[in-house]
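From the shared-data thread, chain only:
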Amino acid sequence: CAGAWPQPPEGGRLSNTQVGETVAGDFRAFIASRSGKLPSAGDEAGAGEPSHGEPGYAYVSDRATRAVFDKLVPMQLAVEAAVRAFWHLELGRLLGGAVRVGPRQFPRVYRITEQCAGVLGIAAPSVYVVNSPYLNAATYGTRQHSFVMVHSALVDHLSDAELMSVIGHECGHIHNQHVTYMTALRMIESLGGRFSALFSLGLSLSLQAWSRRAEITCDRAALLCCEDLEVATRALAKLALGSKKLYEELDVEVFLEQYGEMQSNVGRISEIFSSHPWLPKRVLALRQFAGSDYFKRHMGAEGGVPLGEIDREVEEIVKVLG
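Structure, as tokens:
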């Protein structure tokens, strides 16, 4: 990820104006540089309202929220502040303890990443494996320099198809131009109170609300890559449970009954502080997308429900209030 961050001039520091101009320029370059081979929202084969060439499978609420964020000066300031605080500390810590994937180093992960990138029509991102017992993956970066972090336990516990779903999800963040905002959000969360004077509760909740919708988009990218709803659901459940063995004892249909109980519980409001929708919502939303005309076309089939209608149904599933 060398070159991802603007470097200060020799013997000095970037001024506040220079930092702002550089970060804003990098952000615009990042947005402008991303295009994909899958049908865009404005293509005949896509679905939804035209969206300047964004992927047609993207959840409409994700696209709409980012369009608003892109016009907000405070959002640009949030990105700038987070990058200024983390450009040496956090990336150095992450990359210093990770091993980069390549054709001769973790070739299985490398091959799967290449396949996912090919499906979505993006350049294959750099992938780093981190020694961790937790099943997790994440995407970081800015501009063209996005990279995926995969925990070693994930590689050990998931099949090739399941790993394709997880890496496809992360590639979806890159394909849909999520990475800069998501990196800033993670940085803000990591520093906690040190940014409390800069970021209002309202802005934080707005970021979390957008992030939950971005996850719905990327669950769709995961399904497009692995092309199997059962596999994609299994991968989601394993990440949530953190155990391959426990998943073997899970009845997905019984588990989804918790969604109804959750909707009638006042405690559901706590989800507003989460960057990810609760698992039952993700599974139900993904099932809806699997029945869409967009996914049917992707699989070479006919029929399916228009994606715009699917999005309206998904909005009812993922909303926290109301």
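The beta strands are 98-100, 126-130, 137-142, 145-151.
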